Amino acid sequence: MLRILCFVYLCCSIALAAAEMKQAATGANDQAESSKLAIPQPRIPPGYQPIDRNTEKGLWMELEDYELSIQQSALLITDEPINAYVRNAACRVAGEYCGDLRVYVMRNPGFNAMMTANGVMQIWTGLLVRVSSEDELAAVIGHELAHYTQLHTLERLRRIQSNLATSSVIDLLIGLPLSQMAAVANIMSFNREQEEEADLLGVRFMHDSGYDPRAAVRVWEMLVEEEANAAAKSEAANIFTQTHPLSEQRIQTISDFVEKNYPDAATTTPDSSSHLAILNRYYLLLMEDQIDTNRYGRTETMLKHHRELGVNPGLIDFFYGEMYRQRKAEGDLERARQAYERAIQSDDTIAEAYRNLGYIQLKLDRPELARARFRKYLELEPDADDRAMIEFYLEE
Amino acid sequence: MKMRHVFYCCLLLLGGCVTFAAVPPGEVQLSGLTVTPQNSWNQAPREWTRLSRRDAKTWTKNGILLDRILIIPAVPDGEPLFLQTSESQALPRFNAGMLPNELAEFTESSIAKLFGEGGAVVETSGLRPQRFGADKGVMFDIEVKVSDGPDYKGVAGTLIVGNKLYTIIFIGAEPYYYTESVDEATALIKSARVAIPQ
After folding, report:
1. Which of A91, A351, B67, B142 is close enough to A98 for a disulfide, judged by CB 3.0 to 4.6 Å?
2. Are residues A254 and A160 in the same domain?
3. Does A250 map to a domain?
4. Rounded distance between C-alpha atoms, residue A181 and residue A190, angstroms
5. How many Å lie between the alpha carbon of A344 and the closest alpha carbon of chain B?
6. B139: which strand partners?
7. A102-106 and A120-124 as β-strands: parallel, antiparallel, unpaired?
8. A74 interfaces chain B, CB cutoff of 8 Å
9. A110 contact residues in B (CB cutoff 8 A)
10. Residues of chain B with pLDDT under 50
């Protein structure tokens, strides 16, 4: 139910919205007149409450149930430091709209952020693991906030309703298998004009709250790079992969908007320290979920960014080892061995690096080296839950 | 004549209605894999398990959303644990050279995909060696956190014989359904024997 409502109501799935933009753009002129780069204004005041008796109030009532299901979800992250970090960034970029927001961090390796018409904002951990700074996080939040202040969800709902015999979109959608939800989401996604308005107003929110507006450009550039790497390995096949040209156009529009309206915005290197602290603190959780997606091109792109960003090298090398070991391309076994060897040389290594290096040595038919690594693993992790398995190899 | 055609069509449709089939206690053979349930289970029709491999079986006591045993015999080298309906799913593929840790990771990632990528977090723990008759295999515990459903716990057994993978997975909703069947499911997993036809 949560997933269904998610697709029906949520203000934005950035990847899907990009596809909608591509469709809308087909046949449209590639206009970039300066008038389109004017600074948008929010349509609703802070503290906004629904006005329209039917559609809007009904939507808010449904969304209250939806918010309850988020609060009860097993994938809601309740750990305070990561929530405080995201909440503070959201509140800062929202400015006087801060009181309208409820921010939830959800455990999901996908890149996404969403905001409902009644102020519920979800940030997926897959977003946190991709952006490089608080400014870039604020760029995505600003975009979502703009959808909220422009009542885009309501517009979208009315557009759908006007084309349907039924007055309830939910009636139509409940019961659909999850495999068809992507198609539904595509119908429900924002149109090109709404996306562009959210892009530009989001940049304004960023600038007004003291964030670097150019971070919005960097977020899109990062996504384009990830998609390129994923496509190169025939693994992406998601809707975003088809949007390279449009993403480049989108980047150009945002860049032109920043240069025109905020030419004096800081051009210094962004401060990544607060984001880096969060990544280091939650890196195991974030990357284990990513590894489980089995999407190695994306994982490799992330690891490259994280190394440049300064994430603890022991953790980076450990996950390079994980990625190579599970990818199993030609030469990956040796690459994995080298990565684990680097990981255990690092001050911030983890016990699992010794264990997995031991397994690699087994594969390389070096049982003595394997046993040495296994012994070190148990020395560091005497209560390991897989102790019986490791002892089996030590005694074999 | 037309009425008769309508009657036959109705008969065919009714005949196609999906039903659960009882699995009595005792030895059950599936593509070279033999398991011995101690009590009765209910075998789900294929319509309920559309992501299962052709020769895989799903058994349940109280309904597959509450508890289920997945029996997946003879997965060949290079194939996924479940049916892959599109390349974009990126299901992990079995490799006959997998070591115990990789078998647990493979199962973990496959189950995560079964629940829908991003819709669940799956973790395995307690990896341990297990003999299945003359064959060496492993067992491990499973925890599944679902975005919009109950938490699940479970246990799995897996072994490679003749370059093919044999897997039995039990998961039950926490706390009642897992606790109710975990001992019986564990015994069923340990009863697994593989006999490759000559």
Report:
1. A91
2. yes
3. yes
4. 16
5. 19
6. B128, B157
7. parallel
8. yes
9. 117-118
10. 1, 13-15
Residue B136 C-alpha, separation from nearest chain A C-alpha, in angstroms: 11
Q: How many domains does chain A have?
A: 2
Q: Which residue of A has its CA nearest to B130?
A: A389
**What is the per-residue burial (b if ≥16 Cβ within 10 Å, else e) of A349-360?**
bbbbbbbbbbbb
Domain endpoint, select from A217, A235, A267: A267
Distance CA A143, CA A160 (A): 22
- pTM reported for the whole predicted model: 0.83
Q: What is the pLDDT of residues A267-293, one digit of tens each?
A: 666 788 999 999 999 999 999 999 988
Whose CA is closest to A218, among A264, A179, A195, A250?
Answer: A250
Q: pLDDT digit string (tens) for A133-180?
A: 999 999 999 999 999 999 988 888 777 777 665 445 544 443 443 334
Q: Write out the residue range of the structural domain in which residue A131 sits.
A: 2-17+55-267
Cβ within 8 Å, pair A294-B90: yes
Among candidate residues A267, A302, A323, the one where a domain is terminated? A267
Give me the residue label for tokens 């961090």: A105
How open is the CA angle A46-A50-A55, to the nearest 5 degrees? 145
Comparing CB atoms, the residue among B91, B102, B146 nearest residue A74 is B146
Same structural domain, A240 and A107: yes
